[in-house]
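User: We ran a pulldown and think these components assemble together. Before we commit to crystallization trials, I'd like a predicted model of the whole complex to look at. Sequences follow.
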Amino acid sequence: MSVVRRVSVHLVLLMFLLMPYAGAFGNVEAQDEPEEINEPLDIWSKDYIDDVYPWGGDDAAQFKEYHTYFTMKDRMQHLAENNRNIMTFHEGLNGGVNARGQTTTANTYEGWYYNHKSPWVKITVNPQGGDCNDFVGDCGNYPDRPDVLLVGNHHAREWMSYEVPMMFLEMVAHYYGKAGVDNDGDGLVDEDPWGDADGDGILDDDGDCLSLNSSHQDSNGDGVLCGPGDHGVDEDFSEQYLTDLVNTREIYLIPMLNVDGNRYDREVYCGETAWENCAKSGWRKNLRDNTLTDAGPIPNLNEEVDDACDGVDLNRNYQYEWGAPLGATGPLIPGDCIAGTTNNDVYNGPVDTNDDDGDFLLNEDAVDGDDNDGDGLIDEDWLGGNTEPETKMIQDLTEMNDDNGDGASEFKVVFNWHSFSNLVLYPWGHCTDCQTPDHDFLVYHGDQMAEMTNYENIQSSDLYPTTGDFCDWHYGVHNSYCFTMEIGNNFHEHPDDIDHIAALNMGPTFYMVEVADDPAFRAVFGLGMDEIQWMQSPANITIPDEGDIPVELCLHPNFPLSNDVNRSHMMYRQVTPTRMQNDYGPTEWKEIQPWDMTGFDQTTIRCELLDGTNGTMAIANIPIPETSVGEIHYRAMLGTTNGAFPINYPTVGEQPGDYYVLSLPYRAGFGSTLLAVMMFILVASVVWGGLGFTLREMFRDRGDDDHSDQTDIVESSIQTVGVDSAQDYGRMTVAELKVILSERGMPTSGRKAELIDRLKGA
Amino acid sequence: MSGDTFGGRMGLIFATIGAAIGTGNIWRFPRMVGANGGGSFLVPWLIFLFVWSVPLVIAEFAIGKRARTGTVGAFRIFAGKRFAWMGLWTAWISTAIGFYYAVVTGWCLKYFSAAASGGLSQGVDTTLVWNEFLQSPSQVVVFQFLAVLITMAAIWRGAKAIEKVNVILMISLFILLFSALFLSILMDAQDGTLDGFVYMFSIQPEYLLQPETWISGLSQSAWSCSAGMGMCITYAVYMRKDEDTTLNAATMCLANNSISIIAGLTVMMAIFSVVQDPLSAVSGGSSAITFLVLPEVFAQAPGGPIVQLAMVTMFFLALSFAALTSMISTVELCVRNFVDHGVERSQAVGFTGGALFLFGIPSAALWILMDESTGVAFPQFLEVQDHIWGYGLMFSGLFIAFSIWKYGWNRYKVWQDENDIEGFDFRDYLDNGVSSFRDDFINTGDNDWWIGKWWDYIMYLGFPIMFTVLMGSYFIDVIFNVDDPWNPGNPKGISIVLLFWGFTAAVFILLNRWLVSRPLYRNVPEGAEVPIDTLPGGEDEMILQVGDIWMGGDLDGDGSGKDRVLVAELA
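Assistant: Here's a predicted model for the assembly, 1333 residues in total across the polymer chains.
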């Protein structure tokens, strides 16, 4: 840490205020400024601290010194009591019957040695409302609020890993509901958020750091000028953002999981000033008394901690790939700790001796996602793991905090802090040369956090392979996006470095809370994956002669398309022209069907994404009868495996109404020619035949009329009774004519005209 | 002293067929066939021909032949003095339709002239032609004026002239359509199949289960035959005394349907042979098919440019003729009512023609909008007019049925008085009331065909039911498929229609008293004198025959005695 001169905070703030005008005076004037002015104020000064950590409290609360377990817990309770609208304080879990049918009590989650339960805070607005969970002991469970789990201090000696969550807690408590605070006093509000939120490549958005002389631009001494964590960089985040997150998320914050180990490290193993003697060493595990186990050959009768053998590495104790997978660091024999030998810092806990599934076989199906014993059940008889109070607490919290009752973990994002190495780690940890199905997305989120911190983002196993890792368990068993931050450069950092390391890590913490709603979806967007995918537009669709109409989507090979038809589907509706159309205007369309949906068939067919890379095809078959004509409106909604938000094709605003319109041709056969000819004959004989008949009748009448016209003049006066007139014969039926003929003794055969002629001739 | 009559039976038939055959046969019928499942549509269409169109036309002929006046007089005589306004409504609806129908006739004429001059040959952007034409009001008005002029010339001289013009136009129309049909068959048969023919005569059962098919069939049958519009009342005025009304009615409706089939086959076969997606083209809008699709279709006819030119020219000439004959009947309906009330024919024709042209101008030039989705211009004002008066026609039909009910009830009351019977007896009513119109006016000695009780059932039961279904389906369609249907400012809405109807009916009811205080001159040809004093409005001393002179007093109130002069001239 470089030595900096103390300058009045107000002078510096004034300087920041004048920054926008500095350019107006030109470079020459700037050179004339005394160099001392462009130095930061002493970031360790009381003034500065009060300015940057305005919540007051003691030195620990302002991150000038470490919390102990006790001061930390007091502070958590104090903050919870003073912010009852957004947080509640808890210790351990209440217990009950857990998701695996085991009965637990509150004691189950107490540390072995000091008998503390890990303290934690539930953060969400109105934490007393919503649903209450008797097992976990919290209320404020809302099915529509994504949950996120933040865990510190798995490893006792990694003290910064509980200071970071404590700073997060202080910031939430202080800034919640205070929109628009000018945190750096430069007259601008919320102008310098964590990381490069606006994507312009500049971290120090307001130039606070860049305005300093170059010798002061690396205040955290990491060799990067005005990089993350440097003075003046990312120091004016948005309070509205923080408030919105608290309002829309349920945050489970466990700053110190391994209370036993932490107390032992501070009180016994290294001492209060551990940074002096234990900078890169210290106590790692919890305080399981291994000498009492069957495996421990040498009992420790005085019950003191046997630092050579006791304890379990909590971050090797989770059930997923527990034991000794290929390439993992020891112990080579699971569950073995040989007292008196070299302290095994990564002891993963005892082997499970229960027949978990009651089939009289032991450990035949370890938790690895495979059905090892081929009995149709997966991971039902585990080898070991989750044996410790602390890991059991994580397990039961994860599995019992089921807001919506669907049996899946509510934590779409899980985050935990470790020390040290300045790394961001993503799963897997248990295997090398392997990738998770969500690899691109995990890398994406890791990169975002690495950018905010200048840390390096690597796969966990690339640091070293592990077994029974926290993140492997969350990702492997519960499909949560889980990240590990290896913060700082020491296990025990110097107290001077607490606040700036903690401040540096606020960005990733809020980021994790933000993306907890649907991390896969956000990664898809962040990677621009949605923009290179495409759905067939109407012009490119080939409508088959019969059957469903296939609409193709070209998806990124890694796109996490949910197979749940409720999340991923093609919406379509059929629109036909109204049959009662206006005779003179344009087509008036009438919707006859509401929106319907159909799922996608994922294929292995290759297709070319918009950026020219290979994608895979998903096809939706829209069921439309061949006899339909009109239009089809269609749009795709793609849900991600993890998420709630659909991605729409066409994108919103791309098309009017946000759907494509496909003109639908008539595809059915036009009918049978034979039947059509028969129908034609029927219609023609009725209409044309009818017309012919009436016309014939009419002409015949007219013939009669003409006749009568000629005779009218002569006959009208004398002919009074027209029985014999030709005109009246014409009006008679054939039967009537025959009666007259037979009366007169004439032949009655022949057509009507012949009969009339015969009568007239008579 | 002789009334104005048609020279021969064929004259009347040609005139009524001309009235019935309009653009609806040529552009609406193929569209309806396409949208309603081909042959499936023909089933209701044929059924309603016999249960709707023919019976109603029979009624109109019977009323007109007995009343010997236009619609106003017919209602005054048949429904009684208080209901003369119904005739006014009928006349007005027809005239109001004429206002914009003249514009449409103008379109047809324009397209004929464009086709004849080669303006619709292959490769021409028909949408552009249409848009440019519609968006230049001066052109539209010129052709509208031309349509009005031709119509006026045709009817200036009365029934004899109408007869001659109609005979020429109708025979030309038949020839043109048959020629076009012949070419269409050649076109459709080119690919070895007769797709258009097969589609048009194939029944798709699922369509028969849909109410829309039946409603479309009913409306097409009613609209296309001009049944219930008062046309046949008007033309029956010129019937000779022994004219067979039932045979005339059947002939007219069957001829109308025959033309529909020919036109339908021509259009369907031509479109199916050329257009990739024929059904969408057929069902996709009205102006679109006639003025946008068909020129393109005919421009692709086999046989080279000359056949193509002949085809498209013939088609639009036929369309123009069909439109003109309908125009003639529309104007004649209006003119007849003026003449009935003592106005000189030439004056009435001039006045009607002038009004037709002036009031048609807004439809020709106002609110020419562009349909965003298709890029096709359309006349909004004309559409609104069509929207309002097109369905107003339904009431004209209802009023005709009403006058029949009224007559039947009157006759029942008279019968009761004659036989000293008190109280209502349904069986007696059926025998002496319901059937009386049929007995008195249809089954007269002049008709070859005996019309049975079925006609009474259709008039008394079928008619109100079908009216309700048509009206109901129309209102439901508007209410559910038009945004904001109750806003009176919405041209597609329901409020604007109800307002116009209500206002018109109110004005006409107010005018009724004035209307019946004027003498009415019946056009009774020699030898056709039949007493009308049994009719509800028959004992009105102001109802005279042409040639009679009203002796009751000075109507104009100016003491000039002009009325007599007018009548004298007429005689």
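The longest strand of chain B covers residues 368-371. That may be worth checking against your pulldown data before setting up trials.

User: Thanks, that helps.
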